[in-house]
Amino acid sequence: MTIADQIIAFNSHLQFPGKLPTGIRVLNPFQEGPGIIGIMTQFYKKFYDDKGQRQLILGINPGRLGSGSTGVPFTDTKRMWDKCGIEIPGLKTHEPSSVFVYDVIEAYGGVKAFYQQFYISSVCPLGFTSLQPGGKEINYNYYDSAALTKAAYPFIVSKLKEQLKWNISREVCYCMGTGKNAAFLQALNEKEQFFKEVVPLEHPRFVMQYKSKTKSQYIDKYLTAFAAHP
């Protein structure tokens, strides 16, 4: 099996087995989005259809506009077409985090070079939404409440273990998010000894929302971290 086959099978069989706190719903793009399995399959077959080792980059959990729309972390429909050459007819999403990630990818040397070296996943590979008064759903992170973190913990650990059975480097894991995501992952890593080192980097959403004027500095920070762990 190539790493593409492993990722596609992993994504296609994702199911959250636990009981969730009231008002929280699982976001499973692979079951909810029409055609997402097909889009995701095209992407991984295009960039991961080999057995080469990858370094792991972990985000938080899928959001509605990035992997929620394409099945690929930090890849909205615009980047999927413009950068990856995979068209999604009839659906248009724009995610600021995706803009930043693809700026990093471009600076690294483009999609082919980047995806040959790295695999982007999430600490929790399924997302969550919270129902607001009036019926609006908003993205909700696994660490946004202690009750959800507790409910998601066994799932997070088992799914990370599953992915680490593939040809993924255990030397380093890059963590997107220097706050709660990094704190959770570093504590988990101390307990489970998944990686020799966890390297926190500013989350793409944080950069785009609060630091967009100095975005290039954060792109450089990512590239410097990557260069330190070839």
UniProtKB/TrEMBL annotation:
Transmembrane segments: none annotated. InterPro entries: Phe_SMUG2-like, Uracil-DNA_glycosylase-like, Uracil-DNA_glycosylase-like_sf. Residues 47-226 form the Uracil-DNA glycosylase-like domain. It comes from the Bacteria. CDD domains: UDG-F3-like_SMUG2. Gene3D superfamilies: Uracil-DNA glycosylase-like domain. This is Uracil-DNA glycosylase-like domain-containing protein.
